[in-house]
Design goal:
The chain is elongated. It has one helix and eleven strands, in the order E-E-E-E-E-E-E-E-E-E-E-H. The strands form three sheets. Strands 1-2-5-6-7-9-10 form a seven-stranded antiparallel sheet, with no helix packed on it. With 172 residues, the chain is mainly beta. 12% of the residues lie in helices and 40% in strands. It has one domain. The N terminus is likely disordered. This is Ice-binding protein C-terminal domain-containing protein.
């Protein structure tokens, strides 16, 4: 977390698989899983007179206009109120928004050609949000922890194997 007198950023880095989103318009919902890439970012500026912002992007192969394409999905949300400091980051929860929160956003969907990497024409939608739901996943050991554990077992196995000395019996 970067925290100064004028602004505050919450950020993290990791694999794309935990970065997911669900876009619901009317009765239709599509889940974006970020199978190729994904990022999520939160900016906490409302306490300093700015705006809070939530930014999400993912690249998915589930939905595309052409079978070889992937879909780029971007969502950004801004609010004039301080949404991020009242959020509970340790459990699943929903923040219900009021008209005073003035939460507005934009969604952008585009296809990307895998051969050239160029995105195609984009489709935009303006959003007026009524709630934000945050889900916290179960804690999982980091890959480095697993790697150290497996390496430790391997080293212990090699050490035990080397200790075995063949015993010979000699008669005089």
């Amino acid at each position: 977390m970067i925290d100064t007198a004028s602004l505050s950023y919450l950020f993290g880095m990791g694999a794309a698989s935990p970065v997911t989103a669900a876009l619901t318009i009317g009765a239709g919902t599509h889940n974006f899983g970020g199978k190729l890439s994904g990022s999520a970012r939160a900016v906490n500026n409302a306490g300093a007179g700015g705006t809070d912002g939530l930014y999400y992007s993912s690249e998915d192969t589930d939905v595309a206009l052409l079978p070889s394409d992937s879909t780029l999905f971007y969502v950004s949300v801004d609010s004039l109120r301080d949404l991020l400091t009242r959020a509970d980051y340790t459990s699943y929860g929903t923040i219900d928004l009021t008209a005073a929160d003035n939460a507005q956003g934009q969604a952008r969907i585009a296809n990307r050609d895998p051969a050239t990497g160029a995105p195609g024409a984009s489709t935009y939608a303006n959003l007026s949000l009524t709630s934000i739901t945050a889900r916290v996943g179960a804690p999982v050991p980091e890959p480095a922890t697993w790697a150290m554990m497996v390496t430790g077992f391997a080293v212990a196995g090699v050490a035990l194997r080397r200790r075995r000395v063949s015993a010979r019996v000699r008669f005089a």
